[in-house]
Amino acid sequence: MMLITLIFYRWCFVPMTAADLTKPWWINMGAMAITTFAGSRLILVEHDLAGRPGSGQLVLPVLTTACWVMATFWIPLLAALFIEKHAIIGDPIHYTAAEWSVVFPLGMYSAATWSYADAAHLPFLAHVAKVTILFAFASWILAAIGLLRSALRSVEGK
Fold it and tell me: pTM of the prediction?
């Protein structure tokens, strides 16, 4: 979380070029999603062990919630950076292997949100997971199409 705070500070106060606005920034959101998923699974295990020593701690749910909020906060910010890079700065959209660094974090966010909804007893969040999995699947399809087009171009070029 401290590293992500420093990255956010850089975005706000250091001028960046289009090259600085690359897809690996999505990995930061994915890290928060993975942490949320792990925390949610631990909370669910703790529910199964209720009544044993060490159960009922407040730290794990609070930290898991903070990580889920941080992951959720990143999504509109990253979407805005995508719009800035391609619509405002005018950098053309073309396939690179970095496209896949968007796919996994979106899928992980969906899984984390689904698990967090169960662990936090917030069933309405399951609907968020159902929507975000559609975005993850769409990003997977687009990345796969880009990969196939790139492969076909390289074969045709030989």
Answer: 0.81
- With 0-12 CB in 10 A as exposed, 13-18 as middle and 19+ as buried, what is 136? buried
- State both tokens at 6: 């420093």
Residue type, 67: C
Reading the block at residue 113, the tokens are: 């949100």
How far is 54 from 15, CA to CA, in rounded Å?
48
Tokens matching residue 135: 């975005």
Per-residue tokens: 108: 């992980």
Q: What is the pLDDT of residues 88-143, one digit of tens each?
A: 888 888 888 888 888 999 999 999 999 999 999 999 999 999 999 999 999 999 99
Per DSSP, the residues of 81-137 read HHHIIIIIS-PPP---GGGHHHHHHHHHHHHHHHHHHHHTT-TTHHHHHHHHHHHHH
Query: Would the CA dihedral through 131, 30, 5, 99 be positive or negative?
Result: negative
Q: What is the DSSP letter of 58?
A: S
The amino acid at residue 98 is A
